[in-house]
Amino acid sequence: MSTFKKMMEKTALPLFSNKTILISTGSDAMTEKSKTEKAKISWKSKDCLGLRGVSRDEIELVLNTARSMKEIHSRTVKKVPPLRGKVAVSLFYEPSTRTRTSFELAATRLSADVISIAASTSSVVKGETIIDTANNLRVMGTDVIIMRHNLAGAPHHLARNIDIPVINAGDGTNEHPTQALLDMFTIREHKGQLEGLTVAIVGDIIHGRVAHSDMWGLLTMGAKVRFVGPPTLIPESVKDFGVEVYHNLDEALEGVDVINMLRIQRERMTKNFFPSSKEYSRIFGLNMERLKRCKPGVLVMHPGPINRGVEIDSDVADCKSSVILEQVTNGIAVRMALLYLLVSGEKETHEKTTDSTPSLFE
Amino acid sequence: MTPEDISRSIQRMAHQIWENNASGNLALVGLRSRGVTLAKRLKPLIESMTGEEIPLGILDIALYRDDIGLTTATPQVRSTDILFDVEGKDIILVDDVLFTGRTTRAALNALIDLGRPDRVELLVLIDREGLRELPIQANYIGKALKTYSTETVLVHLQEDDGEDSVTIVLE
After folding, report:
1. Are residues A172 and A182 in the same domain?
2. How many domains does the structure of chain A reveal?
3. Among residues A199, A251, B22, B133, which is most buried (max CB within 10 A)?
């Protein structure tokens, strides 16, 4: 685009009243708008599989687009037309209410048609592979697949084998990129920026795909990340990525701008990682007393579903510092932005996804 | 057009708007991004004549474009910022250049999704005559130009580009 600008400078002639100017033939007609726009940043990959390796520019593009999408939420007619005639399929191999509803609402608000498939009621139970299922959906005219799977890397495997965009809505213990994007969007709305902030992520780090995506995104955006939890739930190796590790919650909360409390993922635990929920709650749960000692204006976040009384007390979850429900609202805007950016461009121009093998903790 | 030409055109159009709108329901809506700049210049001019405050809104039409998925680049989405109720208003859409009419079509759809204005008029600084692809015309025109579709008309405004000028770009 910069060479184009130079070219314009060379050929631009001032236009005086009633004088027409020399004409030469050139490329086909574009509108004035698109010609004068500055060099555009775009989402580079065909898919959105994780935030590892996603650039700051790309994250900012999604967050800025989401800000515009959020405005639509306040209208009486909550619908805009850019994905008219497109089909989005949500393919969920794991239970979910929030994420699936959020994605479906996001696609609907962009005027796409949405088909929702739960693996438990589909041909998956008859032994069909992910790629076969997805290819059948593709030839029925699907434009984007939103996928959740209990195995890390499943969406990556699908993305490599299909030519339509795949969005990872959570893959096992690996990543949950849209949750991290909405977390960052919510933080940015309250704090203005992400750079320089300190974010404590407390709880089940080893099984927490939200923690992993948050870490990649926040580090890219210039924030500091503290992982807090019992040693059994934080792998030592995370220090290599530039995060601080704490095993004492009170120490960890000192000076933080944001606290993100994670749920203990009982369903993923194959052995005992801590003695009891009660003890965990006493040592690593967020209660009013701890919150009061925090920096004023601290944000309390939780990706949901909340286990009240385990990782977070009820009065904290519902207090003024809590933005837990705002996160849910923002999730729609962020997913609208991502769907718009992935689906509305011309398919042939997408680069083949270059995502490396996922899962750092397995 | 020289800076003086542009300034005179804007003043003339402000007077025409005043002449045509005695209702007191007037509102300006600028199309991003130079339409917004033009609307901001028109606002105090019209206000000084009517003596009433005129609401100003900003419209982004990216989501309403008809070439989404056809062009290589995904249009950048920015916010629509219309804080007043469009219901019952006499709205003047403001844009820098009227060319194919497709932007105006998108703007009308975007505007109507926000409510039902009493009337919508279109003001443009430059009307590229004879190149319309849709049955759309402007109510207020700064300057009509005969151009070829292969050319590009560039409007630069002080606030956005550091200078006031209109140029035809040849390729």
Report:
1. no
2. 2
3. A199
